[in-house]
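Attaching the record inline, Q. Sequence:
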Amino acid sequence: MKISITARHIEVTSGLRQFTEQRLEKLHKFAPDIHGAHVVLRQEKAACQAEVTVRLNGVELVSTQDHAEPGAAVERAVDRLEEQLRRHKEKRLTKTQRGGKYTNGVAPAPDDEPGGEE
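Structure, as predicted:
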């Protein structure tokens, strides 16, 4: 997975960069088709804002979180992305498991008269 980090009005230390990369690598267990991630860190007054964007096949998920510490902001944003990826994975699985013309998986009871109504 390609990870890019952009900082605005804040300096990204090597420890913060390493923490962010390790945290984002853990997202592969939820979606192995992640193409890349982009992290934008902004310092706004007393808070740091972390915006994390993850690109999948045909989908782009975004999470933005604020915190006083940049590492905590990244942590909260990635946690939120985990929830989004979990929901996205469940949605994909239920779509592929749907089958047939009956939505609840149970066929209707056969009629008494096979010819229909007269």
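The CA atoms of residues 12 and 41 lie 8 Å apart. The chain has a mean pLDDT of 86.

More tomorrow.
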